[in-house]
Amino acid sequence: MEPVHIIGAGLAGSEAAWQIARAGVPVVLHEMRPGTGTFAHKTGDCAEMVCSNSFRSDDDVMNAVGQLHWEMRNADGLIMAMADRHRLPAGGALAVDREAFSQAVTAALRAEPLIEIQGGEISELPESGNWIIATGPLTSDKLAQSIRSVTGTDALAFFDAIAPIVHADTIDMSIAWEQSRYDKGDTEEERRAYINCPMTKDQYEAFIDALLAAEKTEFHEGETAGYFDGCLPIEVMAERGRETLRHGPMKPVGLTNAHMPEQKAYAVVQLRRDNALGTLYNIVGFQTKMKYGAQTEVFRMIPGLQDASFARLGGIHRNSFLNSPTLLDDRMRLRRRPNLRFAGQVTGVEGYVESAAMGLLAGRMAAAQAKGHDLPPPAITTAMGALVNHITGGAEAKTFQPMNVNFGLFPPLPDVKSGRRGRKDRYPAYTQRAKDDFSAWLAAQ
């Protein structure tokens, strides 16, 4: 049997390789790192997480991304299995020790006899064979040019920003305190999963002033600074209004200052554990394009971080993706070259979980093709099916931008109350329908 080839060993490519091998089909996984690096990656490991360490909500009853977690777990997903094995306390979210996670994914793939991992950059789209392109937002320039040539259109692009990471022992815990918002979590550790740094109104106003005045990364000529709204740099949010951050990543609701419980903070900066040792914390929602010197100066204005030492500062990089509604069919194949499937962020999904889920689908579809079968996508009523439907035809091509999974992509349910007041009944109905239909899809394979 001819192997399936995958370009890119990120979360999508790693998950696709796993699914193909588990179906009994040989697979060759091509990864250019570490020989050819990128701005954001630091290692040659598979499934390296570069922006955040959070897989977001793990609630599979009231949250669409939690439902996507459920579907991936039930489809024998490698990414979710390793995330569960290396999870960190994060309230109601699923956060992981990113280094241990990627090392575990790499070890699992290398231990699978049907998977061969090959190094070296592939710069041209292959004309024949069964291929999955899962090169992510940092697709190399040469391969991106080949994609543009084959598709006959420019790849769209926006800019992605990375949040800074702080050494935990440099956080002043006489000012900061541990608490998850609204004390979420089933254990004491979960309920204390975040470190919170409070600000008074004067401190917040001074912080906003410094943020707006700080030196920012310059863009090259011809680049357009378009951003995905789910990953906006804090400076861009601040430019939209002085109160924007206070109603976004710095909102003070659901938190009580352990040092001064009677005093309500005007704004709160949260940090989330980034590794199992608890020695590193990332500043939640603080993606930034400030220059390095400005970052240390501005972030040390945050009470509790006045003496902070940074393990990594924030940064910004180009994030490319296809206009998938015009280019891909519902089997995730390039219409002009049906031997090529695309998966992950390059298809126009946003988020680690969404990227891995598209890898899972592409892998199962490619494995079915290798065995002489055709595998349709799951029903649009499932999280996975709703997402793939959106990127391959459900979205408006003229305004297409990266999309997280959300209940707005699910078909409405009859006889269920709409609006905000109906969510407590509507969301469980969505997720129960999704579980039933996804289970049926799996059973039919």
UniProtKB/TrEMBL annotation:
FAD binds at residues 8-13. Keywords: Cytoplasm, FAD, Flavoprotein, Methyltransferase, NAD, NADP, Transferase, tRNA processing. GO terms for molecular function: flavin adenine dinucleotide binding; tRNA (uracil(54)-C5)-methyltransferase activity, 5,10-methylenetetrahydrofolate-dependent. Its cofactor is FAD. InterPro entries: FAD/NAD-bd_sf, MnmG-rel, MnmG-rel_CS, MnmG_N, TrmFO. Pfam families: GIDA. Residues 4-373 form the MnmG N-terminal domain. It is found in: Cytoplasm. GO terms for cellular component: cytosol. GO terms for biological process: tRNA methylation; tRNA wobble uridine modification. Its EC number is 2.1.1.74. It is an enzyme of class 2 (transferase). It comes from the Bacteria. It catalyses: uridine(54) in tRNA + (6R)-5,10-methylene-5,6,7,8-tetrahydrofolate + NADPH + H(+) = 5-methyluridine(54) in tRNA + (6S)-5,6,7,8-tetrahydrofolate + NADP(+); uridine(54) in tRNA + (6R)-5,10-methylene-5,6,7,8-tetrahydrofolate + NADH + H(+) = 5-methyluridine(54) in tRNA + (6S)-5,6,7,8-tetrahydrofolate + NAD(+). Catalyzes the folate-dependent formation of 5-methyl-uridine at position 54 (M-5-U54) in all tRNAs. HAMAP family: TrmFO. Belongs to the MnmG family. TrmFO subfamily. NCBIfam families: gid_trmFO, PRK05335.1. This is Methylenetetrahydrofolate--tRNA-(uracil-5-)-methyltransferase TrmFO. It comes from Paracoccus seriniphilus.
